[in-house]
Known about the structure:
Blueprint (H helix, E strand, L loop, with lengths): L1 E6 L2 E4 L4 E9 L6 E7 L6 E7 L5 E3 L7 E6 L4 E6 L8 E8 L15 E2 L3 E6 L1
Amino acid sequence: QVQLVESGGGLVQAGGSLRLSCARSGRTFNLYTMGWFRQAPGKEREFVASIRWGGGSTAYADSVKGRFTISRDNAKNTVYLQMNSLKPWETAVYYCAASATFWEQLPTTTPAYDYWGQGTQVTVSS
């Protein structure tokens, strides 16, 4: 089994920063790709960023490029999402996800991911 546990969410003012963490445990040896998604109330879950665990290549949604950074720490088995210059419309539950498939291109859609965390709330006040 695989467990993904997010942390680091909270309340921040517009323009502020937060760093989310996602700790992996269990059978993680074949989790080739990690991703972050977010879901605002009444909206679909949307892609934010992804990273290939081996090699570290990354992909970002256009809306977060230049402001968010995804990274991983192999020793800690943890993936991070550094979020800067946050905007009120980015208020959402942020989810960590893992894919056990090796995709040629980093996946950006929810069906490509096999495991999900419980989510962490990020609220950006104006």
